[in-house]
Input
Amino acid sequence: MHWLSKKKNLIIMMTPTLTIYTVYIVAAVFIAVYYSLTKYSGIGKPVFYGIKNYIRVFEDRFFWISLKNTFIVLVISLIFLTVLGFLIANIFRIKRRGNNLSKALVFSPAIISPIIVGIIWLYILDPEIGLLNSALQSLGLESWMQMWIGGTVLSPYMYAIVFIWRQLGYITTIFVAGLNMIPGEVYESAEIDGASGWQRMFHITIPMVRGTITIVMLLVITGVFKIFEFIVQLTNGGPNHLSESLVTYSYNITFLNGEYGYGMALAMITFVITLILSALYNFATRDKEGA
Amino acid sequence: MTNSVGSKGARLVLSVILAVITIVTMIPLIWMFLMSFKTNSEIYSTPLSLPTGFSLENYSRALETLNIGRMYVNTAYVALMAVGIALVISFMSSYALSRMAFRNLNLQKALNQYLLLGLMISPFILLFPMYHISVVTSTYNTFWALIMPYIATQLSFNNLLFVNFFKGIPVEVEEAALIDGCNLPQMCWHVIAPMTKPVIFTVVIFNILYVWNEYPLASILIRKPELYTLSMGASMFKGAYSVDNAGIVAASVLIIVPQLIFYGFFQRYIVDGMTAGAVKG
Output
């Protein structure tokens, strides 16, 4: 290989990727950090502002509301996606006709444009013309009818439901891959030893997919912090910023209010929270495996 | 397979549970499809009713109000350029990083790590900087304002898949080609690329899906309606139709159905791409 690896060849092969990546990703991160330290409204020059934007974040009532909303989505999604994904993956292990079709259909929401996902759910959750309230009414359950979206309470819970709907097939697929890595002999010898189905589940399956569970949890954490489009469609964070997530709040501050400096500080903090959560989770699970 | 669930009764129950989950997942999509045949007054007065007929009126109105054809052409153009360029340049750099000899091995490893860092970066901190870069390079409000960031955001993922695959190719293949007097472009094009077809396919399909669905960047880099991509155009449905819900639904179905067909054809590659990105370890 050495005579193809002349310096000139290496430079030709590496330069396009490195240039575009360095400008549009790495330099962009530094631009984001720089603007988060300024006050800038798009007109004139940005004014250096030190860490004032970051201090303002912690005094901003709407930041804490967005944080709370994001955590509601995160906790519900973590619980349901992990548990349901794991259970459904186990059902898929029993070979039967229609499994592949089922898998394909349950996975399909993951590929639909997230903006369209928002439109689809708008016509389910809308309090006036949505499927959900209409169905409750026709069943005579008027008292169950709610302001699913557009109110001040339920919106983040609905984001979680939409997110779970979109991700369930994907998470299930990852669990299926994890389950398939468990060698069949392990189960066979457990069966010979007379282990019951439940015993096998708790003493073989769950311990052996622990790595997969870690991956799934990290995917859910990073996924929740990328939810954007369907919130824009469902509520756009309204009324009055009460149903924002961290991501929509920083977007709206940046691009609708034109407070670029403050918006970037919000975005940076959101990003750092994701990194901390992922690192904490990684750390916690590594600790257990060592024990 | 495993008999972890023994009795026939238990199997039946599990089959029913699976069927229910599948149907519940499909309800939102089926509902959209049914709604697209209802009139606006039906949607308002009797939201729960089934359509009275299968009139295509909503669809023709959707096609008149919005230039969905144009949105498809725009998306296809942006995807072709972004995915094509990202494919070629990441193929080249991954080949260099995995198969070519750097004098400094640590530099090779460091560059690979550097490219993988991108997988961690949240796209939302990049939005304003990318807008800023598009203004500085005077590409704002042109297709290139989208194409360049779309290339950049795909590079880390492509690099991950290509490098992993190239590392598994036996050296003998390349040695034989070298003895036959093969040069670097010939090596990439005639020897490595044919072997890499499945990975190339996964990368291309996955990148196309990304560009097709991407919204946050499109929403800040493109202002001219005639340049709208599908996701960007779809986000304007509510405004464009104001009270025409039937029109919004029909327009959405015109985006969902081709997407589901695309998924039907390339399911394996899409699922591969999405799980490969996840299980990178």
User: Anything to note?
Assistant: DSSP finds 14 helices and no strands in chain B. The CA atoms of residues 113 and 156 of chain B lie 10 Å apart. Chain B has two domains: 8-57, 66-235. Chain B touches chain A through 99 residues (CB under 8 Å).
